[in-house]
Specification:
Blueprint: E1 14-18, H1 23-33, E2 38-41, H2 48-59, E3 65-70, H3 72-85, E4 89-93, H4 94-106
Parallel strand pairs: 1-2, 1-3, 3-4
Helix pairs in contact: 2-3
Length: about 110
């Protein structure tokens, strides 16, 4: 909701990093709320190399902010990459994601 209400990005140009486990479902939901966002599914383990790769991906386009949705590893990679490229970062912990998905499934 924080990204969708445009407090962080007036145009919705955000990159959202998601983990592999729930990434597909979370990504679809985010795309519905933020059509101009880019969903980036992180590969495998949370490593410095994964953060460097994400930072390089972020440099290839223009984004107002980076979002990280998932567990601790996903959030760590997104935070480090956002810091490397100088973008604000919004994180959503896995427990929040699970609540969101549960609510969506019931609708």
């Amino acid at each position: 909701e924080l990204l969708a209400d445009r407090r962080i990005s007036a145009g919705g140009h955000v990159a959202v990093a998601v983990g592999q486990t729930l990434g597909g479902e979370v990504g679809r939901r985010v795309q519905e709320m933020l059509p101009d966002s880019r969903i980036i599914t992180l590969p495998g383990a949370a490593t410095v190399d994964a953060a460097l790769e994400l930072a390089e991906t972020l440099r290839q386009d223009f984004y107002d902010a980076v979002g990280g949705i998932g567990g601790g590893g996903t959030l760590d990679v997104a935070k480090h990459a956002a810091t490397l490229v100088g973008l604000p970062m919004v994180s959503v912990a896995l427990t929040g994601v699970l609540k969101l998905l549960d609510a969506v499934r019931r609708t």
